[in-house]
Amino acid sequence: MRFCSFEAGGRRSYGLVRADGRIVDLRALLGAEAPASLEDLIEASGEGRVDLAALAARADGAPALDPETVTWRPPVSRPGKVVGVAINNRMGQQVAYRPFAEPAFFLKPATSLTGHGAPVVVRGDYGLTHPEPELAVIIGRRGKAIPEARALEHVFGYTIINDITSPGLKERDSIELVTPPAAGGGYRDLMSWRRVRDAEDARSIYLTYHALSKGTDTFGPIGPWIVTADEIADPNRLAIHSYDGEELVFEDSTANLTFPVERIIAHASDYMTLEPGDILHCGTAMRPAEGGRYRALTQWDLAQARRPMAIEIEGVGRLVNPVEFQP
């Protein structure tokens, strides 16, 4: 089953996407008994208050909308949290001086999310800004300290997210702290694993903050829909293809994630209670396509390319977003 959120005729709603691509408006179909949003439907499903199979049967044959007549919204518009996994691809870990032993996380605000077909706005002052194609997990059941072996039981479904990232903004939000020669403790001791050239170099601590570089408005295209977990046999073996305009530029797979989906969910839940509707995006597909124009994602500068981006994930769908450059 595929569920989406959309706007049609000035009214926001959510629906079930049929096999023919048409959308059944579930709020219209269910009337007074309809959950207020897709997030509420997800929660009700996880608690056993909504039978999705029965809902799909009820939607079969119901009036449906042409997808060309709707504006796609983020499937989950107000998640409690959007959690990303940093450098979770074997290509990235191979060049790390100290590879991560566990998934490392960052957060994106819900306001960064935008729907399929909506423009990604890139201002000239952002500097270098590039896409990051990723599989996203939608949590369906609340959980804390979830065992890895049971992690997928907490998944409602999967969607596509483009984790737009601006190294230009990241550079502005980075700082070098130079500690006094006799100083000890704190970051200096905690980061003793660093490779340093000499005692002078060892005094420097570099910190980077990612709120703007990852969380600026429109930096989270997501959708077009959520595919329920029962339709994805193994989320760790999905092909991912990324296009700059019509040209294939990156070709990867979730099989190349350093930490699989189950490990991501389990580790995150050791520290953060996961709630229905929460989004975990799993790591960037970064393997260049053979003969493609880019050898690294940072070469795909949206301020220069300005062509629509498309991401396809096997069994999930195709997410397309144009670029709106504002000098």
Account of the protein in words:
The protein is of the alpha+beta class and 327 residues long. It has three domains: 2-73; 82-167 and 211-326, Alpha-Beta Complex (Fumarylacetoacetate hydrolase, domain 2); 174-208, no CATH class. Helix content is 19%, strand content 30%. The protein has ten helices and 19 strands. The chain has helices spanning 26-30, 38-46, 52-59, 90-94, 167-172, 186-190, 199-202, 211-215, 261-271, 302-305, and strands spanning 2-8, 11-17, 23-25, 71-73, 82-85, 105-108, 113-114, 120-123, 133-139, 155-162, 174-178, 204-208, 220-228, 239-244, 247-253, 279-281, 309-313, 317-321, 323-326. The strands form four sheets. Strands 1, 2, 3, 4, 5, 6, 7, 9, 10, 13 and 16 form an eleven-stranded mixed sheet that branches. Strands 15-14-17-18 form a four-stranded antiparallel sheet, with no helix packed on it. Strands 8-19 form a two-stranded parallel sheet. A hairpin with a 5-residue loop joins β2 (11-17) and β3 (23-25). The chain is globular, with a radius of gyration of 21 Å. It starts with a strand and ends with a strand. The mean pLDDT is 96. Keywords: Hydrolase, Metal-binding. Residues 95-323 form the Fumarylacetoacetase-like C-terminal domain. One of its GO terms (molecular function) is metal ion binding. This is FAA hydrolase family protein. Belongs to the FAH family.
CATH topological fold name of the largest domain: Fumarylacetoacetate hydrolase, domain 2
Report the top-level CATH class of the largest domain.
Alpha Beta
Determine the oligomeric state from the structure: single chain
* Category by helix and strand content: alpha+beta
Write down the overall geometry: globular
Low-confidence stretches: none
Number of domains: 3
Strand content: 25-35%
* Number of distinct helices: 10
Largest pleated sheet: 11 strands, mixed
Distance between the termini: 41 Å
DSSP, total strands: 19
Task: Let me know the CATH homologous superfamily of the largest domain.
Answer: Fumarylacetoacetase-like, C-terminal domain
Tell me which CATH architecture of the largest domain applies here. Alpha-Beta Complex
**Elements, N to C (H/E):** EEEHHHEEHEEEEEHEHHEHEEEHEHEEE
Average of pLDDT: 96
How large, in whole angstroms, is the Cα Rg?
21 Å
Q: What fraction, in percent, of the residue positions are helical?
A: 10-25%
